[in-house]
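User: Um, what's this?
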Amino acid sequence: MNLDTTVKKGQSGWEASTRIALPAVIQAEGDRSPMGGPPAPAFLEINTHKRTSGGIVTSASVFFVSEGCRTSSYGSGYQSGTYADGAGDYHRTVRFEKARVTEKKVREFHEESLKVLPEILAQVATHYGVATADDLFKEVEPA
């Protein structure tokens, strides 16, 4: 799997982002897409950035892109990195550390966070009812 990571200075300081296409996770037709559009492809995004309360954080979340709009659904009952009721799209905090947020720290922290990518992919597969993490990358026909 080819990981394309971008590191840039954003509005709140240095940030790193890795985006991975998940062809096996397809949003149902008209579901959350503007104007009931076509099925939307899913992406897993791993972001590292300065937390508003200070420190550095890496999070992983799945979102969909439909007609140029990024959408995701957050369920109720958020508990320690996952949704208690299973509703909503996948989201989890991967790591957090109280630290000064420099470009070097963001690069190192993001790289370390990507080491748990197999675990994250397994959780994403379970969340969306895909048999295995490897199956996330198989093309499927929309229902």
Summary: The longest strand covers residues 13-26. The chain has one domain: 5-137. The chain has two helices and eight strands. The beta strands are 5-10, 13-26, 41-50, 56-66, 69-71, 78-79, 82-83, 91-97.
